Amino acid sequence: MDHDSYSNEYILGILKSCKTIAMVGASPHWNRPSYFAMKYLQDKGYRVIPVNPTAVGQEILGEKVYASLRDIPDRIDMVDCFRAAKAIPPLAEDAIAIGAKVLWMQLGIRNDAAARKAEAAGLKVVMNRCPKIEFGRLSGEIAWMGVNTRVISSKRQKKV
Amino acid sequence: MPKQSSEARYGFETLSIHAGAAPDPTTGARTTPIYQTTSYVFDDVDHAASLFNLQTFGNIYTRLTNPTTSVLEERVAALEGGTAALATASGHAAQLVCFHALMGPGDHIVASRKLYGGSITQIGHSFKKFAWDSTFVDPDDPKNFAKALTPKTKAIFIESLANPGGVVCDIAAIAKIAHKAGVPLVVDNTLASPYLCRPFEWGADIVIHSMTKFLGGHGNSIGGIIVEGGKFDWSATPKAYPTLTEPTASYHGLRFFETFGNMAFAVACRAVGLRDLGPAISPMNSFLILTGIETLSLRMQRHCENALAVAKFLQKHKKVSWVSYAGLAKDKYHGLAKKYLPLGAGSVFTFGVKGGYQAGVKLVENVEILSHLANIGDTRSLIIHPASTTHRQLSAEQLLAAGAGPDVVRLSIGIESVADIIHDLDQALAKT
Description:
Largest interface: A-B, 35 and 51 residues
CATH superfamily of chain A: NAD(P)-binding Rossmann-like Domain
Helix content of chain A: 25-40%
Structural class of chain A: alpha/beta
Strand order of the largest sheet of chain A: 2-1-5-6-7
Number of strands of chain B: 12
Helix content of chain B: 25-40%
CATH superfamily of the largest domain in chain B: Type I PLP-dependent aspartate aminotransferase-like (Major domain)
Largest sheet of chain A: 5 strands, parallel
CATH topology of chain A: Rossmann fold
Order of helices and strands of chain A: HEHEEEEHEHEH
Oligomer: heterodimer
Shape of chain B: globular
Distance between the termini of chain A: 24 Å
Distance between the termini of chain B: 46 Å
Order of helices and strands of chain B: HHHEHEHEHEHEHEEHHHHHEHEHEEHEH
CATH architecture of chain A: 3-Layer(aba) Sandwich
Radius of gyration of chain B: 22 Å
CATH class of chain A: Alpha Beta
Number of helices of chain B: 17
Radius of gyration of chain A: 15 Å
CATH architecture of the largest domain in chain B: 3-Layer(aba) Sandwich
Number of strands of chain A: 7
Number of helices of chain A: 5
Number of domains of chain B: 2
Largest sheet of chain B: 7 strands, mixed
Shape of chain A: globular
């Protein structure tokens, strides 16, 4: 797996197959990137469950916050990590343990050892990307910001 | 040779026509519509708040984004191989917005001294009002850039192919110097256009264009653009680039690099520079430039072919003392041109007319097909005598340094029948 460059098909396959996302490091503060991403993904029809031990007992955007991935009673398709690279290995183990299909690390975050472990357990891995930006890019929305979406099509835009 | 990105699946000509321009989602219109509107309705109050806070993607006001302009931005980003782009009202506006994101009072730019005269004036004089300092160096020896660096230097600025002298910069060598110093290399790629040179492949971090020139190509619209390469780590030196890495008070503490990653520079230029300084491009101009870009490769091929033929003709002319065109085999910059501009050395070059200043004035006044005007990169062939026009605000010393001495005539060779261009120059030279 080339983690320097993902094909549109690979990312699109993940975004289409996942419905429930556990967001590790989701912030209750409305001006943090994780909050932006959670709100955006909710608007696009995903259920996003926040994981943040410092915010247990609270709700973020209407969802109960859990202390760890293993505490979540619902089935999780994707684990999206807003955590530093060194914090990823135990999250990768948790993601494997709860039967997640995708381990996703946010912009600026990459841990190749954790990625190999998750891939060996059959998970798909994305690093140094943001699902909000990827959704916006592949749905054509983000083109409003002048972004090079690398999508070329002579067909009318379809919803992701 | 530069490594080809594995995502670059389409050829340059395909991208020139298709990048960014899927059929209009509402009407199915195949050509990009001109969205001649100032503003866009919100779905509801929450949607408005999300847009203003940059939490979702969408249009608010044409000073910030416009669907026609967005297609143009994506098109140029794709042609240059960048992550994102931001169009502006002019090339000068692009430079202003770009440096506004990089610089603070007391910061410093190291720039090539062989630049478009207007850029020397903008950087050397107008930027001083913001307390942005600068040092101009001879780009022929890349080490000159290293020598001029200070602890306050925030960028190195060059033109890939310089106007008017036909100077080609050693982009890869200068990029290495910039990166060693932890600063981005900003390259004005106007004269080459991405068809002839793609500076990101050689290590540049930001590319700027006056789209008024070859991208638009028809001399009908003013526009500029900033393209982000997406590889520069803005956080490598703590607090060196606060616009990118520190909380932005006017966006409730948002940090652009943390939030937008490899497109943070373009987003910051838009959300801060374009929002607060205001030089937005008109949607009509975006449309005209987009239409021009569809034929960029065809035009550049003919521009280069004609320019080489005219340069060879002038080289042998008895009233011409020298020709400076990197496409000529014995030119000082031919080696660099072969490396960085393998498909042609562009169509803007200079030559010396025997008889100096007065002969230069006579020549430009006697042409009949070439147009005497202050632009380049038009379908039409253009001629100017820089010392009496574009560069007249420079001192005698600066004129020589910029390659615009009293006998210098600058040509921008168009795509007319080359025999007619040559005949016109011949008859006008006879009158000098």
